[in-house]
Amino acid sequence: MNNKYSTSSFIITLLFEAIMIYTGAKSYSAGQEEIFKLSVAAVICLSIPFLLVHAANKKKLTLPPGFQMILSLFIFSALYLGEINKFYSKFWWFDLLLHFVSGWYAVVTFLFLIKTSIKKEQGTSHKMFEFFKSICSFSFSVSLGTLWEMYEFSGDYLLGTEMVKGGLDDTATDLLIMIAAAAATSIYSYFKNRK
Known about the structure:
Distance between the termini: 25 Å
Structural class: mainly alpha
Helix content: over 70%
Number of domains: 2
Number of strands: 0
Largest sheet: none
């Protein structure tokens, strides 16, 4: 299946890019180095959804409907609202919400990706195949969550940003919330599709 490029997602992402470029230029002229670095990171990251759709189309993989929009909203929320506009400090639940959403959506994305790439072998029961899909989608989600935490740590270490606010407690809580969301979504998928 060919994943269509969404015009509305493209327009919204361009709007987000414009906001980030404006924020970056303003922070650079004001000498706010951390906000400038975060703005540059956001501008780069906002191209990722379109690159992923392009790669999925080349490999004939299926992505969930609204993939570009959801991923662009997530990146904008995490970097612009969360980091630059301090939503993480203003709203205690904001970081947890984003990690919950990422845990859930990574499972959904993986389940779509394997629809066209993994086929059930003859002799494998339907329940076993669905169990395998649930375990793999859970693992995929946990891996992405871990990579995000490494991205935050690397940004703090290499660029001097302050994305990891509470040290080990922040990282562990983020991972636990994301793992809980991934587990709940994987279990739900298994029981929904096993019959």
